Amino acid sequence: MRIGELASRTGVSVRSLRYYEEQGLLSSSRSTGGQRHYTEVEVERVAFIQRLYAAGLSSRTIAELLPCVDAPSEEHSDTALERMAQERDRLSAHIAELARTRDALDALMAAAREYRERLRPTTAA
What we know:
With 125 residues, the protein is mainly alpha-helical.
């Protein structure tokens, strides 16, 4: 299949697919005219890459993990496990920072509500 069909089937833009190739995440064969051609395997590969992106991994990190997928071995598994542990730690730190930001926003919202309540005229009974 050509790049447009792969884009259509995966919901990923042609530009993104080209980027994946530039980063070494995806490969294609080329026709004599230079057109990219993909197989069904690449449809699954793109879906996998998308899941990793959705999990917050960068293209660089994904490229570091793919050897474990492409050529499983003890060495690749050890490297991938170490890299995934680093990513998990990075994500945990990011989640903690997001939680601190959320808590700060909650405090600001509470202060704003309190201020608004003080501005409301009181009604006499």
